[in-house]
Amino acid sequence: FFHFYAGICSALKLTVPSHTIHGIEGQPLHLSVDYNFNATASEIQIIWLFERSQSNPKYVLGSVNQKVVPDLEYQDKFTLIPPNASLRINPLSLSDEGNYIVKINVHGNGTIAASQKIQVAVDVPVTKPTVHTEPSSGVVEYVGNITLKCIVDRGTRVTYQWMKNGKRLHAGPNYTFS
């Protein structure tokens, strides 16, 4: 990001993670942000916004010269971590999934600004599975079929894999999966 003022070139470099950051529901999440510039600064302002898909960005917190002004609604959840512009979310909930926008304004001989977006995904740990047998009495060897149903109560991006004696089971004449 380059901005020109009175013929002087001042660059403000803002570095954020380029990939989606995955956090775990109920745990803290750290959004790492670094910035540097080659201008004389009398004021450095940091602003954090949050946007869910299809909604307007909401103010989370801001600071001027490291004095933090939180949105009172979220003041216990979001923390700015000086000296850089990193944000801590604690605890993380499913409703925190979306884009976090950080904007830095450096005021000195003119103002230079830069902003970046960080995408956050919230993962829910998979609960212990329960297995139900139908018929519940079991079956006699070589007679009839048995159905095993595996159920998990909570979890994001759940995949199922059936094993027998530590080896993966594959579909065939004896096993069908649905």
Report what the structure shows.
The protein has two domains: 12-123, Immunoglobulins (Immunoglobulin-like), CATH 2.60.40.10; 130-168, no CATH class. Helix content is 0%, strand content 52%. The protein has no helices and 16 strands. The chain has strands at 2-5, 8-15, 21-24, 29-31, 34-37, 41-51, 58-64, 67-70, 78-81, 86-89, 98-108, 110-123, 130-134, 147-151, 163-164, 167-168. Strand 6 and strand 7 form a beta hairpin.
Map the helices and strands.
Blueprint: E1 2-5, E2 8-15, E3 21-24, E4 29-31, E5 34-37, E6 41-51, E7 58-64, E8 67-70, E9 78-81, E10 86-89, E11 98-108, E12 110-123, E13 130-134, E14 147-151, E15 163-164, E16 167-168
Parallel strand pairs: 3-12
Antiparallel strand pairs: 1-2, 2-5, 4-10, 6-7, 6-11, 7-8, 9-10, 11-12, 13-14, 15-16
Compute the CA-based radius of gyration: 26 Å
Biggest sheet: strand arrangement: 3-12-11-6-7-8
> How many distinct beta strands?
16
| Weakly predicted, low-confidence segments | 1-9
Distance between the termini: 52 Å
Largest sheet: 6 strands, mixed
Tally of helical runs:
0
Average pLDDT metric:
87
Helix amount, in percent?
Answer: under 10%
CATH fold descriptor of the largest domain: Immunoglobulin-like
Helix-strand makeup class: mainly beta
CATH architecture of the largest domain: Sandwich
Characteristics:
mainly beta, Immunoglobulin-like, three-stranded antiparallel sheet, 52% strand, disordered N terminus, HEPACAM_domain, transmembrane helix, membrane, transmembrane, signal
